[in-house]
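task queued by scheduler; priority normal; single chain, no ligands, no partner chains; default sampling; output format set to structure tokens
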Amino acid sequence: MKNSRSHASDRTTTKEFFMDSFCAWDGETLVLNILGKPGANRDAIGKVKGKQLNVSVTEPPVGGRATDHMVRFLAGEFGVSVNDIQVVFGRFNVNKQLRIRSPKKLPAVISKHVSQIDLL
């Protein structure tokens, strides 16, 4: 019997997107460079550090479980389903790139960054 549970690895893609910032739009898809912090006290979207967005999750870094948990957490933060988030690279690493298809809402740090880009 096949396990019906979805994993972030099921949504891994090879389309790497190079950016000058921690986030960029590729059509209707938001591309994020993430610096993950597994085993944290709480799930949280943190500050930007260089060209990465800090994202902390409570799940320990074992077998990609922290990335799976991060995808579930971020799905809620962006108002999308888990299937709308693809892990481009970094499933087993703290350095990740994610693609979020048609986010319904943007967390404050991203909304602020996008607003600053629109002013340029």
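post-processing summary
- Residues 8-119 form a domain with the Conserved Hypothetical Protein Mth637; Chain: A; fold (CATH 3.30.1200.10).
- The beta strands are 23-26, 29-37, 44-49, 52-56, 85-89, 95-101.
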